């Protein structure tokens, strides 16, 4: 909550108290308080971002000011009838309480600042696959459209002065309202998130501290989107990595392209398992589509180094040190790529949905250092029947579980509402502790594998965090 919003609440409360206790000769003071509240209200509209949660309070301030002006015009002595006072107190109390509750349920959070030595720059660009035909969305039903994706890059910077701070949700209100629709909530309920600022600055120059930086490709899960993992991207960039976050078109909640085309989630891409006999075919195609997107980005690294799409990244990517990171379906796709692509040097997965890849493919095992973080919610599910053999068959793979977490704890879903834990979307573990665990595991793992700067850091983290344990069960 901004300082001017706090003042609005305080001014309204003080006005109500004055209305209740002011004597008749003090009516002019009450009216001055009303006008002062209106002044703050105007200042808020001019210099701050209005929030829908405060609409009841806005209504009260506007109505109260109107009544005050009418009273001043009609009553020379400035007296306010007692009946009007009572009505104002009742209406004011109700609107203040409602706005207070709404702000508590849907607060405007700040994204925690990354703790690395670098500032963070960001650019966004689009990639079109030269060979893959789009299989999802309405356009796929009418034409042989080539698949295209949206990619956001986060990178270390030394100078962000004069560069505009990027918003958290690049796809703005189109995305927030699509999410509200998905959750069967009023369309405007998540509008407040469109104005949350990230910690990245648009087109800031890349740091010249090193000639090139290790690259990490980041993939979201089914119904997710790239900005659900901004915290990881900004953290890694602030510590000297270039992160390329993919929006997997039609698997993402919303992908908005530069030409204005908005590709909404294609629900038909992954129908209900319980009523779909060939569900495994749908799941396999979806994960491999995500994997194709990852390979497209991999194939574009040399092009990015040549200065195409942006001169900012020219010659800045160390294509010999490339890692993959993903959540859920995105992590399953990362596994599919890492199983066969020698360009991958490290793999970090959160609740990796590997079931769609099948036991035969997974039995090949991974040959690169790999970490699998699992939520407590996913322990013992059908996915474990595929994940555990994969870990066993791999040369250097470790599986950790964070107790008190759900599948969504690996995303920034708590940014949307304080109710996520209460309704069971996120787990019982404190969100700050959960985030610290994830961030430390991700950062230390990639520093160890891509920068070769640490020795077995994850075992040290196990000693620090009692909410994490390593699953060494062998299937």
Automatic annotation (TrEMBL):
Pfam families: PAF-AH_p_II (PF03403)
Residues spanning the membrane: 6-22, 29-47, 53-73, 89-109
Keyword check for 4Fe-4S: no
Keyword Transmembrane helix included in the entry's annotation: yes
Keywords annotated in UniProt: Hydrolase, Lipid degradation, Lipid metabolism, Membrane, Transmembrane, Transmembrane helix
Protein name: Uncharacterized protein
Origin species: Fusibacter bizertensis
Organism classification: Bacteria, Bacillati, Bacillota, Clostridia, Eubacteriales
